[in-house]
Design a protein that fits this description.
Blueprint lengths: L2 E5 L10 E8 L8 E2 L4 H6 L4 H7 L9 E5 L8 E9 L9 H14 L5 E5 L5 H14 L13 H7 L6 E5 L6 H25 L7 H15 L2 E5 L1 H7 L2 H7 L7 E7 L7 E12 L19 H16 L4 E11 L11 E3 L5 E3 L7 H13 L5 E6 L3 H7 L4 E5 L2 H13 L4 E3 L17 E2 L7 H10 L8 E5 L5 E2 L10 E2 L4 H12 L5
Helix pairs in contact: 3-4, 4-6, 6-10, 7-10, 9-11, 10-15, 11-14, 13-15
The structure holds ligand BES, manganese (II) ion and zinc ion.
Length: 513
């Protein structure tokens, strides 16, 4: 992983492979690029010509733009990397944390294979320092576990494809407690997002319910969490018909993992439930080719929950956080659930399975009911639940639904505060009728139109009476099939981790529920 430190060293004498500076978009209509705060010493060493040089090289300061140029004479580092920050803040106002996070991420990504870089970005306050730390560690992320170049550090160095080795954040106040705390928080959050990304990117022949549960047990031991794993026998004994019904087509049986972080100072208890389909083939309602190549990402909700519980422990938050990972592999076989089968769920309700590809709601139903039994102050589930939500909101925004308008709003706000794009969606009562079943209490399918909301309404039936609940459908942003951007790589993104951590912090402060 990338080493991170804060420093007040003079930039010219710094032994590094590159110096990163920020460039803002100038005022329109014809303003050229503007060197951002933090890079004053670098700009001065170019005798005031840095902005002009950048303009000559075609830089505009647009978000994510990376321009490389030789460092000024007298600098120990050979290279300056100018990264676009987009339009700057109003005069006298601070940079938006997410703009800093993205720029730091884009620069770190452009420095893949490099040993050491110094970042001279605007660190006006502790929040800015935390955002830059987060962005650097997220942008430096490389997934090469299955590549020749990822075999060991030597192979990585030889291929020049490893993550940026060391990042020094210049400026700021390294001895200021607030700065240090913000950077430590950023490092913990980014580290846990990268943990989620690793799990999402791991191929489904190696990541399956039992192996995921083992990884969780190992991390639990490391971070002092309590962990319980229900295997297929325990699930059958307990009556977890949803998780079993989805998992029974696979040769690799399902698991329900409960991870608990507890604090002696906790006044609130937050429960998190994650969809953990380690591979979604669709089951007997098999997905066609073209729709199954990325379905290893269908455990991204469980990965986010896992990462958030560990983050709460690393940050020592004064709140109890319980994570429920609903793990199953959705496969077709002679033992698989058939369209037409009726499952008896953990809550006691019966579900007619009309489409085995609507499996996420089945495993979550058991997880939500299990979580509700402990009477937490709130339950939040996270799931790559529906293609309908991807159609509605695109690939970068997740949906927030729930049974309490104020709580749903608070979750949306927590997402925005942490730099994640989210939008609130309704649970229209009239859509419940579409899930009426002639045989069972409810069917796992309803009207096609508004499919993301139908799924939300299904989940609502399995939330305990009086339990405050929100549902995040991250099917769009969980996995980036397009080009990398900002601090987001191709593949697993770590969507929802920051929002969940923020919720845990708010709950700890008594500002959530
Ligand atoms: N895992 C999928 C949803 C999904 C789609 C996630 C695209 C990520 C990207 C889910 O299990 C699914 O198959 N949903 C169906 C539900 C339908 C059968 C009611 C869907 O959205 O088509
Ligand atoms: Mn499915
Ligand atoms: Zn699925």
């Amino acid at each position: 992983m990338t080493d991170l430190s804060l420093s007040t060293a003079a930039v010219a004498g710094l032994r590094a492979d590159a110096i990163v500076v920020g460039v803002a978009k100038g005022a329109q209509p014809d303003g050229g690029p503007v060197v951002a705060a933090g890079a004053e010493a670098v700009a001065a060493a170019y005798d005031g010509s840095l902005a002009g040089l950048l303009e000559t090289l075609g830089a505009s300061g647009a978000e994510g733009e990376v321009t490389k140029l030789p460092a000024p004479s007298g600098f120990k580092a050979p290279l300056v990397v100018a990264v676009g920050l987009g339009a700057g803040p109003e005069k006298g106002e601070a940079w938006d944390a997410e703009a800093l996070r993205r720029a730091a991420g884009a620069a770190a990504r452009a420095l893949t294979g490099v040993r050491k870089a110094a970042f001279a970005l605007p660190l006006e306050d502790a929040e800015a320092a935390g955002a830059v730390a987060e962005g650097v560690l997220l942008g430096a992320y490389v997934y090469d576990a299955y590549k020749e170049s990822g075999k060991d550090e030597k192979a990585r160095a030889k291929a020049g494809k490893g993550p940026l080795g060391e990042a020094v954040l210049l400026g700021g106040k390294p001895r200021d407690r607030a700065f240090k705390a913000a950077v430590d928080r950023g490092a913990a959050v980014a580290g846990e997002m990268n943990r989620a990304r690793d799990l999402i990117n791991m191929p489904p022949n190696d990541l399956f319910p039992a192996s995921f549960a083992e990884i969780a047990q190992k991390a639990a031991k490391e971070h002092g969490l309590k962990v319980t794993v229900l295997d297929e026998k325990a699930l059958a004994k307990g009556g977890y018909g949803g998780i079993l019904g989805v998992g029974n087509g696979s040769t690799r049986p399902p698991r329900l993992v409960k991870l608990s972080y507890t604090s002696s100072k906790a006044k609130k208890h937050l429960a998190l439930v994650g969809k953990g389909i380690t591979y979604d083939s669709g089951g007997i309602s098999l997905k066609p080719a073209g729709h199954n190549e990325t379905m290893k990402c269908d455990m991204a909700g469980a990965a986010a929950v896992f990462a958030a519980v560990v983050a709460a422990a690393r940050l020592g938050l004064d709140v109890d956080v319980t994570g429920w990972l609903c793990l199953a592999e959705n496969m077709p076989s002679g033992s698989a659930t058939r369209p037409g089968d009726v499952l008896r769920m953990y809550s006691g309700k019966t579900v007619e399975v009309l489409n085995t590809d609507a499996e996420g709601r089945l495993v979550l139903a058991d997880g939500l009911w299990a979580a509700s039994q402990e009477k937490p102050d709130a339950v939040v589930d996270v799931a790559t639940l529906t293609g309908a939500m991807v159609l509605a909101l695109g690939s970068r925004t997740f949906a927030v639904m729930g049974n309490d308008d104020a709580f749903r709003g608070a979750v949306h706000e927590a997402a925005e505060e942490s730099g994640e794009d989210a939008w609130q969606m309704p649970l229209p009562e009239h859509l419940r009728a579409g899930m009426e079943s002639a045989t069972a209490d409810i069917a796992n399918m309803g009207e096609r139109m508004g499919g993301g909301l139908v799924a939300g309404l299904f989940l609502r039936e399995f939330v305990g009476e009086g339990t405050t609940w929100a549902h995040l459908d991250i099917a769009g942003p969980a996995f980036n099939e397009g080009k990398p951007f900002g601090y987001t790589p191709k593949g697993g993104t770590g969507s929802a981790v920051r929002t969940l951590v923020r919720l845990a912090e708010l709950a700890a402060a008594g500002d959530l529920v």
